[in-house]
Each structure stands twice: as structure tokens, then as C-alpha cells.
TrEMBL record:
Keyword entries, A-Z: Membrane, Transmembrane, Transmembrane helix
Bilayer-crossing regions: 12-34, 54-73, 85-105, 125-145, 166-185, 191-213, 225-246, 252-272, 297-319, 331-360, 372-393, 405-426
Protein name (Swiss-Prot/TrEMBL): Uncharacterized protein
Length: 431
């Protein structure tokens, strides 16, 4: 009973954080209040995350706090507001995007009796997971995997298809957490540039992923998801609306526009589909659904403290990365290093948060840095046994997380090679 109360209060606070963050994006007021609301929600929902995530987050907060104290002792400057509110816009976007679950997949998809099987089902499920995951994030995995595991346990092959399809969306999706991280940590990077650069990489990698997965001896027995691609109309409308509105309101942060339009479009579509149940469904989601983002909430709150601590030390001691410039060659090294760290359990956000203060002063093209962060997120999530998607599938469906990560290792080398090639091509085109 008490846990349900915490979850409901957490959901209300997250809704308030969305409102305050969007207000701040348009007016410049409410930055600290939005961050404080997020932290209150995080404290209420801290018990919802796994023990491993708790320790990981506490370690990040501790290191960040030590860095802030160290920087203050050296320089006399202390920016607590940055630690509290640095990721409030990103968290508001993630919470707002969660509302899309109410409209992105129609009920007919959930009740259809026929289940596609075989190699074509792998292609269809992989692409469907990718496209829906690009908009409604981790909710997609739960919707699809729940259906696939109704009559038999989720198989390793099914889990691997979901893992790859989902993680590759990080390369381009405006609605993915990775894009918010890139826009926040690669100051000056542009959404449209990174999206257009990421789409061909993701498309090529989806083809390679499908080809590899079809070579499995179990591919003929694969049971997929009955995906109707006409359901992509709503996500497509949202993506176009974001880009159009950004063109007319270039001074408003893109993640603020995504947060605003995600909630607005959800309410509009619900009003057309079920005019008598709009308030009930929306309130029910706030009270019983928003708390499901507690993992991301705790992670990004902790990452904000870590990044602030690193920035404090870098500023106080005038630290430099020892690089004269930052181009495709240097980005490739960072990509490999952060991916290796992710494979042993260090979340990509940690590598991104610690490298950003060091790299920003020497970066000539912030879009290249933003692309690097998108790639780090995509590869890191795919090969990490501790990524949210793998832990969720282990906890909910019994597929061991490290086995999913191991199944993706054979996909890692071609992915890294293509991403590194893309970094050099991008540098050549923009030189």
C-alpha cells in the first residue's frame, strides 16, 4: 500500500516536472524548481530500481559530490543548482514521451490472433521494434515481449532481436534518451544533422542484424510480433511536428518541444479515439504508469551530479585531455573505449558525462561529438549486461542479461567498423 502511494506521488511529481521544464524552456523560469521536483520524485521512487542500479547511482553521486567539493576548495566556486537541475529537460522529455504508449500501438495489435513465424518474422519484428522503440522507448520492448511470451518463454533469439532493434534507434531518434544526452553534452550540436547522419547508419546495421539473425538454426521457428505498420502514422506525425515547430521556434530547446508535443498529441489523439475516457486514461497513466521510468530517472539524476563534479574539477585545475584537436580519429578511440567499458558494466552515460567537460573546449564541430555520443549509447546498451533493456528482459522474462549481451558481441565488430567509417565520412563532408 505504501509502495503504491510512493509510486503515485512520484508520478504526480514527474508530471509537475514536465510542466515546469516546458515552462522553463519557453520562459527561462523554473529551471531549478523543475530539477528539484525531479529529485523529489527520484527519492520517492529510489526503492523501485534494482540493488545494482542503486549502488551504481550512489557511486556516481558520491564521485560527483567529491568533485564538486574538491573544485570548490580549489576555486571557491560551487554550483549546486547545476547538479540539481542539469538534466531536468532530458528527464521531462523522457517522462513526456512515456505518454505516447497510450496511443502509439492500437488495441488491434495487442489482440490479433495470428503470429508471424520464420525468417520474415525476424525482419518484421526487428524493424517494428526499431521504429516503435524510436518513439515510445522501452515501453515497446514490454509490449512486444509480453505478446511473444504469452504461450511460451521468451527465447534468447527473440530477446536478441528486440535488443538490436531497440538499441539501433539510439543512432538517430529525436525521442530517444541518447539524443537528449547528445544535445545536452555536445553543446551546439543540431538535431536534424545528427538524425540525418544516423538514419543511414541504422538502416545498414538493421540489414546486417537481420542477415546475421536469420543464420541462426532457430530462425525458422522464430515467433514474431504481428506488427501493423499503419500504426506508425502517429509517431510519424509527431516527428514531423517536432521538426516543423523547431523551424519556427529555433530558440526553444528541441527536447522541450518534444516533451510538449508528446503530451499534447497524446491528449489530442485520445480525444478523437475515446473522448469520454481522456481524463481517466491520462490520470491513470500518471498515477500508475509514469513511475516505470524510475530507472532512467535515478540514472540521469546521478549522472547530472557526476558531470557537475567532473566539470568543477576540470575548471578548478584547468585540466585538458592532452589532445590538440578532436576529429574522427579521436572520436573513434573514445567510441571503442566507452564501448569496452559498457561491456564490463559501466553505463555509457558515465563515459559521456566524464568526457564532455574535457572535450567541449577543443571540439570544432559539436555535431561530430554528438554523433559520437549517439554511437556510444547504441553500442554500449547493446553489449552491456547491465543495460536497462537487458535487465528488464531478465527480470520480466527470465532471459539472462549477460547471454543477450554475449549474443550481440558478433554484431559489435561490423557495427564499430561502420560507425568509425561514418565518423570519417562525416568529417570529410563537413571539412
Amino acid at each position: 500500500m505504501q509502495e503504491n502511494l510512493h509510486q503515485r506521488l512520484g508520478g504526480i511529481l514527474l508530471l509537475l516536472m514536465i510542466i515546469l521544464s516546458v515552462t522553463n524552456g519557453f520562459t527561462g523560469n523554473g529551471y531549478l524548481l523543475a530539477g528539484t521536483t525531479g529529485w523529489l520524485a527520484g527519492l520517492l521512487l529510489f526503492r523501485n530500481v534494482s540493488l545494482l542500479q542503486r549502488w551504481q547511482s550512489l557511486a556516481m553521486v558520491s564521485i560527483g559530490a567529491i568533485g564538486m567539493l574538491w573544485g570548490w576548495l580549489k576555486s571557491g566556486q560551487f554550483d549546486l543548482s547545476q547538479a540539481i537541475a542539469s538534466n531536468q529537460a532530458l528527464l521531462a522529455m523522457l517522462a513526456a514521451v512515456g505518454f505516447l504508449r497510450l496511443i502509439a500501438l492500437p488495441d488491434s495489435d495487442k489482440t490479433e490472433q495470428s503470429t508471424p513465424t520464420g525468417k520474415k518474422a525476424i525482419w518484421r519484428t526487428l524493424l517494428g521494434t526499431h521504429l516503435f522503440g524510436a518513439v515510445i522507448n522501452l515501453s515497446t520492448i514490454m509490449i512486444i515481449a509480453d505478446r511473444q511470451s504469452m504461450k511460451r518463454p521468451l527465447s534468447l533469439l527473440q530477446a536478441t532481436v528486440l535488443s538490436r532493434g531497440f538499441a539501433l534507434a539510439a543512432l538517430w531518434s529525436p525521442f530517444f534518451a541518447a539524443m537528449g544526452v547528445a544535445l545536452t553534452n555536445a553543446d551546439g550540436s543540431q538535431l536534424l544533422t545528427m538524425t540525418l547522419a544516423g538514419i543511414p547508419i541504422a538502416t545498414l546495421m538493421l540489414g546486417i542484424a537481420a542477415w546475421q539473425l536469420n543464420q541462426s538454426s532457430l530462425s525458422e521457428e522464430f515467433r514474431g510480433y504481428p506488427m501493423h505498420f499503419e500504426a506508425l502514422l502517429t509517431p510519424a506525425i509527431l516527428a514531423v511536428a517536432v521538426l516543423v515547430l523547431h523551424n519556427y521556434l529555433p530558440d526553444i530547446p528541441i527536447i522541450t518541444l518534444i516533451a510538449l508535443l508528446s503530451v499534447t498529441l497524446t491528449l489530442m489523439v485520445l480525444s478523437l479515439r475515446e473522448p469520454h475516457h481522456v481524463m481517466h486514461k491520462s490520470a491513470s497513466f500518471v498515477l500508475n504508469g509514469l513511475h516505470r521510468m524510475s530507472g532512467e530517472l535515478i540514472l540521469f539524476l546521478a549522472a547530472g551530479v557526476l558531470a557537475t563534479g567532473v566539470t568543477s574539477v576540470v575548471f578548478a585545475y584547468q585540466l585538458e585531455p592532452g589532445l590538440d584537436s578532436f576529429g574522427a580519429a579521436q572520436a573513434s578511440l573514445f567510441l571503442v573505449a566507452i564501448t569496452i567499458l559498457a561491456a564490463i558494466g559501466v553505463h555509457p552515460i558515465i563515459g559521456i558525462a566524464t568526457s564532455s567537460p574535457l572535450l567541449l573546449p577543443i571540439v570544432d564541430d559539436p555535431n561530430l561529438l554528438g554523433m559520437l555520443y549517439l554511437m556510444c549509447w547504441s553500442t554500449g546498451v547493446m553489449v552491456s549486461p547491465l543495460s536497462g533493456i537487458h535487465l528488464a528482459m531478465q527480470g520480466r522474462y527470465g532471459v539472462v542479461a549477460h547471454k543477450i549481451a554475449q549474443a550481440n558481441i558478433g554484431f559489435l565488430l561490423p557495427m564499430l567498423l561502420i560507425e568509425i567509417a561514418a565518423l570519417f565520412i562525416f568529417e570529410w563532408f563537413t571539412a
